[in-house]
Design brief:
Blueprint (H helix, E strand, L loop, with lengths): L4 E5 L7 H9 L4 E4 L8 E5 L2 E5 L12 E4 L7 H13 L8 E3 L8 H14 L11 H9 L12 H21 L8 H16 L5 H10 L4 E4 L24 H7 L8 E7 L2 E3 L12 H9 L12 E3 L1 E2 H11 L3 E5 L9 E8 L21 E7 L16 H14 L3 E5 L7 E3 L6
Parallel strand pairs: 1-7, 1-8, 2-5, 2-7, 5-6, 8-12, 11-13, 12-15
Antiparallel strand pairs: 3-4, 9-10, 13-14, 15-16
The protein binds inosinic acid (IMP).
């Protein structure tokens, strides 16, 4: 029996983690978002209705699940409230079952303005951020000048700290980026209007989680983005500003590695990436068109078209290694249903081995030539299938090849966006 499960992405995000978190949450007590912010977009389909969550843990669609947004997350309080209201409009009431760490840094309008101004200034060299202020908010955290959610509880201090930080941002926004100055009083007014709404949600989430472990409750840790976007281990500088790899769970919650029982790496059956940065298996042909249209590969946060490519086995092995993954979940297998042949990159031609993606300055990933293994497609519908034995033989072979490359088992296969389109290869905790 696996109790506490981490679900994280092995690629560049958008692997379909939200659906898997939602699927596994039916049997859990807590679901925790531990890093990132509303740059994430987790798409869930329940009873044929699509719900996109950016900040709120995906498992909260089940009425008995308690959601935690822990200290590692950067929170736009205005987006948080919008999301809570959107859920209420859809019949999901989460008011008394969402707890937020007082130490979570706030994302405020000056972070967003700075994110956008920097991207504009970078011109052709831009990073392709989501424009949600994530980088500047994490910079403030490391520079020890963040306003935190807990600051909302002390109005006088909030006002004093806000004035100082807005002054700091204005000096750069106005003189360097030639933007209009921000008035801290407007932000203060908006913050004071929403404080009552979230006041009771602000709780010591580290203690809540330690208590949950003592009480033998099941916890799911919901990763955002993907391993190759990790600030330390990803394709720097084309990364996000948090630790999307396994260490983020510990620093982002206050739990230790012994509290984690099982680490599931969610991997799309092919690859996608939004934003700039190296992508060795990227496709620029009709298969790209097929994958992006069939897989609806458009960003759920920004609407941008995602770049597409074959599954990169070298990158997958790297993700297995740096995260100590227990097993994989392969998503969007159904998107490959109509392809005559399918490829997986198993090595790169111009380098003997690529050990680390965070250290590719002398190995330019942009110039890498992937070497592929080619497999026959199955040319049959897979969505709705419940047992692995019922998958076409070629699809089972494809899964088996992934297991051989990753050297860990595939425990879950997803063949469509709905909760029902899921094959549980191995009983986890059902
Ligand atoms: P930021 O996190 O908005 O600073 O963006 C940095 C990079 O991470 C950009 O390439 C984004 O497109 C990418 N990114 C951030 N969040 C996600 C996500 O949830 N899915 C996929 N890419 C993401």
């Amino acid at each position: 029996m696996k109790k506490n499960i981490v679900i994280l992405g092995t690629q560049w995000g958008d692997e379909g983690k939200g659906k898997i978190v939602d699927f596994l949450s039916s049997n859990s007590s807590y679901v925790v978002r531990y890093h990132g912010g509303n740059n994430a977009g987790h798409t869930l389909v329940v009873n044929k209705k699509k719900i996109i969550l950016h900040l709120i843990p995906s498992g909260l669609l089940y009425p008995n699940v308690i959601g935690i947004i822990s200290n590692g997350v950067v929170i736009s309080p205005f987006e948080l409230i919008k999301e809570i209201k959107m859920l209420e409009e859809n019949g999901y009431f989460i008011n008394k079952r969402l707890y937020i760490s007082p130490s979570a840094p706030l994302i405020l309008p000056y972070h967003i303005q700075m994110d956008l101004a920097r991207e504009k200034k970078l011109g052709n060299y831009l990073l392709g951020t989501t424009g949600r202020g994530i980088g500047p908010a994490y910079e403030d955290k490391i520079a020890r000048r963040s306003l935190q959610i807990g600051d909302l509880k002390n109005k006088k201090e909030l006002s004093r700290k806000l004035e100082i930080i807005v002054d700091y941002y204005n000096s750069q926004l106005v003189s360097f980026y030639k933007c209009k100055p921000i008035d801290y009083k407007n932000i203060l007014k908006d913050l004071l209007e929403i404080t009552d709404f979230i006041y009771d949600m602000i709780q010591d989430t580290t203690n809540i989680l330690h208590q949950a472990i003592k009480d033998k409750k099941r916890i799911i840790f919901e990763g955002a983005q993907g391993s190759l976007l990790d600030i330390d281990h990803g394709t720097y500088p084309y990364v996000t500003s948090s630790n999307s790899t396994i260490g983020g769970v510990m620093t982002g919650t206050g739990l230790g590695p012994k509290n984690l029982d099982y680490i599931l790496g969610v991997t799309k059956a092919y690859s996608t990436r939004v934003g700039q940065g190296p992508f060795p298996t990227e496709l620029f042909n009709d298969v790209d068109h097929y994958l992006s249209t069939t897989g609806q590969e458009f960003g759920s946060t920004t609407g941008r078209k995602r770049r597409t490519g074959w599954l990169d086995g070298v990158a997958l092995r790297y993700a297995v290694k740096i995260n100590s993954l227990s097993a994989l979940c392969i998503t969007k297998l159904d998107v490959l249903d109509n392809l005559k042949e399918i490829k997986i990159c198993t090595s790169y031609k111009n380098i003997n081995s690529l050990e680390n993606y965070n250290n590719f300055s002398n190995v330019n990933l942009n110039n890498i030539i992937p070497i592929y293994e080619v497999y026959p497609g199955w040319m049959k519908k897979t969505s709705g299938i419940k047992n692995i034995e019922d998958l076409p033989q070629e699809a089972r072979n494809y899964i088996h090849h992934i297991e051989k490359i990753a050297k860990i088992p595939v425990d879950i296969i997803s063949t469509g966006p709905d909760r029902l389109d899921t094959i549980l290869v191995k009983k986890l905790f059902f």
